[in-house]
Amino acid sequence: MVTSTTWLTDAWYVAGWDAEIDSAPLARTICGVPVVLYRKLDRSVVALRDACPHRLLPLSMGIREGDSLRCKYHGLKLGPDGVAEEMPLKTDPVNRRICTESFVVHERHRFVWIWIGDKAKADPALIPDLWPCSDPGWVFDGGYYHVGCDYRLMIDNLMDLTHETHVHSGSIGQPEILEAPIETRVDGAEVVVERWMPGIDAPPFWRAALGQPGLVDRWQICRFALPASVMIDVGVAPVEAGATLESHDQGVRGMVIDFMTPESETSHHYFWGMARNFALDDPGFTARFKRQQGGVFAEDKVILEAQQQAILANPDLKLSAYRIDEGGTRSRQAITRAIRAGQAEPALTPAT
Question: Domain 131-341: which topology?
């Protein structure tokens, strides 16, 4: 196992979307560990260290044979439990002490989750309860980006939405984001940042979603949970609907789903999506909504990768933190405390 001072290992991370992982081996480095993922004939997921125990060729280059993988170099065959089933020389007796590491996986809420650390601690109850992703009153879809930056920079970005005014000016950004007061607090195992923007014009993205003119009340509630997720309750409602920060199902509401899975110290896997409680029976809208959201997050990817390069180019400089950065700062502190404690606290259900 690769040790790190920047991420937890005894925790559930998203390894992939359910549709990403199929019968063909998929290579993905998670928390510094090369992993190969594939589905068995019964469609359950296998996760093994992506290195043949013979000469370390990636098993993701191997040949599927039933539920097993045969190394493409010398032909060592390994079962889905990572244990040798057949030697390179078929006349040699099978040595079942030859094996590669296997990992605990679990499917829930359209994601395949993996536990890189101590298997004995891999309790499925610690997987976040992503109720909007499975509730019949909501529709959920999303995508994936490989992002060349420390995963904590993405957490900083998602917990400080003041950047929307400038980075996403053509879609969800507007000056009122910079003018509205924000409240940051620690709520149990979560860090929460709230912003309420009453009586404003809706930005293009939300104006199209609402489908009617007039002033709106807009909200943003960001929740960070260990080891590396940010859920953002967002939306707008007509002013006359009487929405509040505590109760806001009157207009159009979405739950932005963000999971950051560390790959290396300077790269991560970003799984993004949105669950919504409107236009539930319109698959065309779902596809357009996903495309628009993907465009918004592609703008973040450009900014964050440039920021990472600037950090590497300026090793004598440190990041500064202003009041708008409090959500990200407290989230980093939670990660650091959990690493020192050697365990992640259970993730909580997003606010409703």
Answer: Naphthalene 1,2-dioxygenase Alpha Subunit; Chain A, domain 1 (3.90.380)
Pull the structure tokens for residue 107. 């499917």
Give, in order, the Cα–Cα distances in Å from 197 to each of 43, 121, 177, 182, 309. 46, 42, 7, 10, 34
Q: Could you give the count of Cα atoms lying within 13 Å of 249 in the half-sphere of its Cβ?
A: 5
> Residue 89 class from Cβ within 10 Å (0-12 exposed, 13-18 middle, 19+ buried)?
exposed
* CA proximity to 59, closest of 88, 90, 92, 37: 37
| Mean pLDDT in order along the chain per 10 residues (352 residues) | 78 97 97 98 98 97 97 96 94 93 96 96 93 90 97 94 69 69 89 93 85 91 95 93 89 93 98 92 90 88 96 94 89 93 53 40
Nearest-CA neighbor of 350 among 205, 196, 188, 172? 188
The DSSP symbol for 285 reads H
Sheet with 68-70: list strands edge to edge.
Answer: 63-65, 68-70, 77-78, 84-86
Assign domain 12-121 one CATH number from 2.102.10.10, 1.20.1250.20, 2.60.120.200, 2.10.109.10: 2.102.10.10
Q: Is the peptide bond before 315 cis (omega within 30 degrees of 0)?
A: no
Res 74: pLDDT: 96
* DSSP line for 146-166: EESS-HHHHHHHHH-GGGHHH
- DSSP per-residue letters across 130-145: -GGGT-TT-EEEEEEE
- Residue 188 CA to residue 210 CA, distance in Å, equals 33
